[in-house]
Please model this.
Amino acid sequence: MTTERIVRIVAGFFILLSLSLGVEGSPLFHTSHWLWFTAFVGFNLLQSGFTQFCPLELFLKKLGIKPSCQ
Model:
């Protein structure tokens, strides 16, 4: 599995988790402040699309996981 794929999986998981914790209609609702985490993940995805900089991807490369197609 490549770093790009792991980043997408982790981002999707964090977005779904924070939405389930932040939306009042959810059975897992905790507080609406979790929606700030959703916005944070979305902003990081947006900026990494423009700048090609992703902190998680750097961490995964240091762990020895191969980067996406080179």
